[in-house]
Amino acid sequence: MGIYLFPDMFKSFNLPDDEGELLWSSVQSRSTIGHVVMEAAQDVLRLHGEDGYLKKWVQHPFPVAELRELRRLHLERDACDLPHELSPPE
Question: What gap in Å lies between CA 73 and CA 33, rounded to an integer?
Fold first, then answer.
């Protein structure tokens, strides 16, 4: 997994990774990636709420249904030993 920098997102959106500048790289399990993405999204939702998120990011509402599905799949399919919140986001 890597994070790449491209000079212009709108012109570079469909370019292959090797045409960007590699900024960060790591090898992690699906369980770990799923967990940290889920936790980060839940933190954003907790911090801003749905209304605050929409005001800040304007073009798209917070993806509550997608976060709920990620959480469900992560808990169902990943053998994750990290602590989890007991309730899904509202």
Answer: 13
pTM of the predicted model as reported, rounded to 2 decimal places: 0.72
Q: Give the position of tokens 């709420």.
A: 49
For 14-25, how does the pLDDT look when each residue is reduced to its tens digit (9 = 90+)? 888 888 999 999
CA-wise closest residue to 32 among 63, 1, 67, 64 = 1
Type of residue numbered 72: R
Chain position carrying tokens 């990943």: 78
Kindly report the number of other CB atoms within 10 A of residue 74's CB atom.
Answer: 20
C-alpha to C-alpha distance for 60 and 54, rounded to whole angstroms: 6
What does the alpha-carbon distance between residue 46 and residue 90 come to, in Å, rounded to a whole number? 10
